[in-house]
Amino acid sequence: MTRAVAINGSPQMEKGNTALVLGSFIQGMMEAGSEVELLYASQMKVKPCSCGVMYCWNDSRGECCIQDNMQSLYQKLKAAEILILATPVYVPLPGDMQNVVNRLMPLIDPKLERRQGRTRALLHKDVNIQKIVLVATSGWWEIENCDTVVRVVRELAKDASTEFAGAVLRPHADAMRADGKVSQNGQAVLDAVRRAGNELVGQGRMSQETLAAVSRPLMPQEP
After folding, report:
1. Is pTM beyond 0.85 here?
2. Which of 13, 69, 201, 219 is least surrounded by Cβ atoms within 10 Å, i.e. has the fewest?
3. Domains in the chain, please, with CATH?
């Protein structure tokens, strides 16, 4: 059984658009046989990285000197094949989510090498993560508003020499609802999100057709 850890970085936690989209994605993964643990960055209250001397690389490789909820997260991530980072676009990330991402460094082995003109590293041998996936929601109409967040997560995956398995992006996410409820068009989007999660686990990849259905316009762009 594939194990996955999903981290929802939205300050609204289970009440926001990010939770709505992520919930359908997780449902699709579970239907394909994956075990998924959902965590909330705001609930974890992870402290910012304060070890400017790179303690986790230079003093005690693979260990973080800060004792907080990241210590239990490290163990969960070591056992997971898939890491899902879910977030609203905050140019680039909400503060609690940024702290989590910054604190992933102890999972990376500082054996640096040059590949295609860039310096890259590897995950420690006891870290089982094989794929990193982004789920992102944005309030702006253009899908391009997600570009910075996509770049952050893609670079994280490349720096750790693991697969960036794709981005599930929902622009103008509020348009999924009408009168406080998920609309018919919104449900069609969520069905596509669910299919993307199912494809990721069942086929090892998400099709471009499915991802396009997730991101499709739900309203005209205002002039």
Report:
1. yes
2. 219
3. 3-215 (3.40.50.360)
